[in-house]
């Protein structure tokens, strides 16, 4: 750690490595050095295991950086800063730049080294891409409630790796995305109210164990994405809140507090921008993470997320600067925005006046699609246009289709339980929904438990209901999801050039009363046909017209008996023949579709 003043880039907001200069670092000669940015403080001290928790005074430089060294400090020991404001009030705070943390409810920071991890993922890192022309099928996971030990305790990071990696490979996922793992005091926040932006939560083990989890995922061919929270932070008095007795990290005035009771970052202050840019870079650099999903971006684009309040220009500039800097440093890492607004050019490069994200969550697709499948059958003709509306705009951004944790909590019901109808109809529709999702242009994300056919809403205090797999419908649904994941990776028409509107073609999207829907996808030299009956009555002799003759080979039918379906499936091989009218589409293909069923075909020209 340098003893001199921080570089000017830290104060201007252009620093991506502030974690190398602030916080706690081992001294070459033994012991540890401490550095704290607290320009409004009257005094500061460090206290910890190494000094019997007595105050060890720190000395400030002209930029408000307080420093000291403790020759008796050792890795693994706990510590805090005691910071006295100008009003004379002293408050203990955890280290904003700490690499480790005490297990909650404790709030101390922990002395940890992160410069000695051993990775063996060179091959993965060399061939890593943003997956624009590769499959991207993400499994979103909460580390403490996927599975648990028999005694109810958490698995640590390495134990999770033992169980997760084989499961992800069987289910056809390409990437694992963790809900925020940065240290947080409240389990119920799911990690979205952060106090330790540089510390993997101690709930599941040590920083070294997390590094080994990432390394093992990479060696198995699985990417690891982190959910990152750059807009707001926990209001706990022992964290970043009023760190030096002033509104240092938080934005002042009426926009300083979020709807969740957290504090909004002051994205106009250079040192705060450097803090967040460094935290984002930290997970990519130190832990070899493959990308970041940025949470609550709408709350940065607009003041408090309210479009009526207008654009927040300083926050927009911050996002552009951060994304541009991260792309420059980590050109193959993925940056995804969770954004529900119509803000333009979210996934356009900064050089072209975009925000510089690689992908944007398609929240409109999610809302419209789930509304359709949760509606009674008689109401569906009036919602048909909403079901297909996403096809009008899928090429405007690089979209990611997400059925995330947010759709499985707070009384919204789980994905399966959202489906309208009887028990069997719910499963039929869930299979239909997921076939529609995987055939639709856009990358994919599913929250853990969706693939089990979970009926109980997610609870962070309980593991998933794995006992559901004793029941044929749930076990078959898990196998169905694995088959979809495999087909998605095997067929380039589902992921190559998927945002090119010329690679998508409507075959039927004008029969709302029938609930019939069909389209083609092209890519990698192949053409696929996806066809859906979204109503609860059979379609016999459904007619689909094409410009050229095809032979259609069935790849998947959602009502196959092996998926615990009705067993009523369309023919395995169909022929498209010239019939009837002449014109742009003189070739006719006929097929029968069971109620609430879909099919995926490979088309080969004859």
Q: Please tell me what the overall shape is.
A: elongated
Major sheet: 8 strands, parallel, barrel
Which range best describes the helical content: under 10%, 10-25%, 25-40%, 40-55%, 55-70% or over 70%?
Answer: 10-25%
Find the count of extended strands (DSSP E, 2+ residues): 31
List unreliable stretches of 5+ residues: none
Radius of gyration based on Cα positions:
26 Å
How far is the first residue's CA from the last residue's CA? 69 Å
Strand order, biggest sheet?
A: 11-12-15-18-19-20-21-22
Beta-strand content bin = 15-25%
What does the average pLDDT come to? Answer: 95
Structural class: alpha+beta
Number of helices: 12
Account of the protein in words:
With 606 residues, this protein is of the alpha+beta class. The chain has an eight-stranded parallel β-barrel with strand order 11-12-15-18-19-20-21-22. Strands 3, 4, 7, 8, 9 and 10 form a six-stranded antiparallel β-sheet that branches. The chain has a six-stranded antiparallel β-sheet with strand order 23-24-25-31-27-28. A hairpin with a 4-residue loop joins strand 23 and strand 24. The longest helix is centred in the last third of the chain and has 19 residues, at 472-490. The protein is elongated.
């Amino acid at each position: 750690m340098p003893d001199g003043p921080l570089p000017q880039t830290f104060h201007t907001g252009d620093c991506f490595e502030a974690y190398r200069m602030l916080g706690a670092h081992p001294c070459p000669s033994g012991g540890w050095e401490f550095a704290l940015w607290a320009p409004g403080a009257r005094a500061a001290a460090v206290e910890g295991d190494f000094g019997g928790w007595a105050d060890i005074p720190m000395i400030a430089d002209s930029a408000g950086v307080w420093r000291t060294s403790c020759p008796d400090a050792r890795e693994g020991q706990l510590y805090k800063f005691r910071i006295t404001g100008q009003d004379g009030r002293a408050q203990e705070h955890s280290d904003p730049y700490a690499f480790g943390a005490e297990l909650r409810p404790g709030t101390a920071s922990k002395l940890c080294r992160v410069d000695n991890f051993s990775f063996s993922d060179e091959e993965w890192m060399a061939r890593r891409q943003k997956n624009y022309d590769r499959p991207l099928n993400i499994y979103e996971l909460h580390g403490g409630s996927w599975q648990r030990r028999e005694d109810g305790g958490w698995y640590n990071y390495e134990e999770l790796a033992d169980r997760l990696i084989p499961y992800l490979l069987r289910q056809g996922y390409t990437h694992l995305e963790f809900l925020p793992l940065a240290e947080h005091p409240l389990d119920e926040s799911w990690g979205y109210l952060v106090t330790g932006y540089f510390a993997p939560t101690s709930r599941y083990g040590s920083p070294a164990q997390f590094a080994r989890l990432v390394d093992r995922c990479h060696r198995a061919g699985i990417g690891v994405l982190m959910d990152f929270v750059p807009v707001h932070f926990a209001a706990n008095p022992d964290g970043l809140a009023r760190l030096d007795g002033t509104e240092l990290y938080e934005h002042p005035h009426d926009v300083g507090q979020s709807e969740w009771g957290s504090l909004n970052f002051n994205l106009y202050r250079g040192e705060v921008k450097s803090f967040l840019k460094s935290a984002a870079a930290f997970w990519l650099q130190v832990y070899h993470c493959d990308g970041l999903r940025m949470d609550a971006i709408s709350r940065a684009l607009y003041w408090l997320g309210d479009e009526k309040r207008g654009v927040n220009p300083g926050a927009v500039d911050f996002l552009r600067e951060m994304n541009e800097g991260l792309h420059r440093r980590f050109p193959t890492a993925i940056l995804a925005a969770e954004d529900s607004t119509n803000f333009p050019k979210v996934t356009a490069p900064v050089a072209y006046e975009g925000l510089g994200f690689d992908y944007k969550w398609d929240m409109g697709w999610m809302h419209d699609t789930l509304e359709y499948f949760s509606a009674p059958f008689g109401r569906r003709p009036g919602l048909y246009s909403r079901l297909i509306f996403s096809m009008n705009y899928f090429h405007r951004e690089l979209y990611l289709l997400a059925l995330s944790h947010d759709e499985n909590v707070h009384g919204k019901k789980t994905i399966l339980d959202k489906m309208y109808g009887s028990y069997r109809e719910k499963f039929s529709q869930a299979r239909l929904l997921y076939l529609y999702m995987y055939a639709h242009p856009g990358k994919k994300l599913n929250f853990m438990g969706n693939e089990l056919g979970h009926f109980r809403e997610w609870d962070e205090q309980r593991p998933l209901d794995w006992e559901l797999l004793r029941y044929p419908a749930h076990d078959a649904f898990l196998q169905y999801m694995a088959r979809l994941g495999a087909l998605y990776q095997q067929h380039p028409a589902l992921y190559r050039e998927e945002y090119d509107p010329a690679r998508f073609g409507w075959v039927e999207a004008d029969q709302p009363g029938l609930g019939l829907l069909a389209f083609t996808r092209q890519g990698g030299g192949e053409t696929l046909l996806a066809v859906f009956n979204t109503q609860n009555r059979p379609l016999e002799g459904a007619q689909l017209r094409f410009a050229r003759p095809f032979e259609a080979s069935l790849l998947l039918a959602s009502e196959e008996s092996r998926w615990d379906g009705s067993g009523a499936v369309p023919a395995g091989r169909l022929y498209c023949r010239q019939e009837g009218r002449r014109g742009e589409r003189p070739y006719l293909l006929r097929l029968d579709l069971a109620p609430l069923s879909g099919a995926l075909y490979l088309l080969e020209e004859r």
